[in-house]
Amino acid sequence: MKAVAAIALGSNLESKFGDREANLEEAVRLIRPLGEVTGVSSFYDTEPVGFLEQPRFLNAALLLETELGPVTLLRELLVVERTMGRERVGAVAKGPRVIDLDLLLYVDAMGRDVVMSTEELVLPHPEMQGRRFVLEPLAEIAPGMVNPVLGLAVMEMLHTLRA
After folding, report:
1. pLDDT tens for residues 43-57?
2. CA-CA distance, 74 to 158, in Å (whole number)?
3. Does 86 participate in catalysis according to the annotation?
4. Distance (Å, rounded) from C-alpha 54 to C-alpha 118?
5. Active site residue 100
6. Among residues 102, 108, 113, 132, which one is catalytic?
7. Any residues with CB less than 8 A from the CB of 127 and at least 6 apart, and which?
8. Which of 44, 101, 128, 163 is most buried by a 10 A CB count?
9. What's the burial of 149, exposed, middle or buried (CB within 10 Å: 0-12/13-18/19+)?
């Protein structure tokens, strides 16, 4: 058995790959060598959060079966971002970006939910439960996946957000 990772994708700028949709498709293509993509959500057109003076986002989620550990996977996702032209250093926080990849949840090869907090990586993603643009796409492909800190499934977090 392999580990299963839930990854959020977002884009709100055009790039050499094309429009926002093309950026998400390119990110999925670049993530494929990291394991087996077992699910990709629909693409959701969403309002920006935090820094509001920027274009609308296109968001999605994917599930990846992988042999990579969580920190190694995160580092590889950052390589994908850089390959696509995103530089995090010096960028406006929550600002416009060609691609944004976030590791949301990680279940190891033994089926255990990974909870960790380091300078490099916090799992589960500490803000996911308050982000409709993360939960809606993820609920489409992994409604029963659990945030082990909250003890809530993705669909439950989404319903709580709607309340």
Report:
1. 999 988 877 788 999
2. 24
3. yes
4. 30
5. yes
6. 102
7. none
8. 101
9. middle
Look up 132 and say whether it is catalytic. Answer: no
> Is residue 125 a contact partner of residue 103, using CB atoms and an 8 Å limit?
yes
Rounded alpha-carbon distances, angstroms, from residue 112 to 3, 61, 116: 9, 21, 12
Q: What's the confidence (pLDDT) of residue 100?
A: 95
The catalytic position among 45, 82, 100, 113 is 100
- Kindly list the distances between the CA atom of residue 75 and the CA atoms of 102, 109, 140, 142, in Å, as whole numbers in the listed order: 11, 19, 26, 23
Closest CA to 97 of 80, 113, 81, 110: 81
**Element containing residue 77 per DSSP (H, E):** helix 70-83
**pTM of the shown model:** 0.95
pLDDT in tens, the chain (163 residues): 899 999 999 999 999 999 999 999 999 999 999 999 999 999 999 988 877 788 999 999 999 999 999 999 999 999 999 999 988 777 777 778 999 999 999 999 999 999 999 999 999 999 999 999 999 999 999 999 999 999 999 999 999 987 6
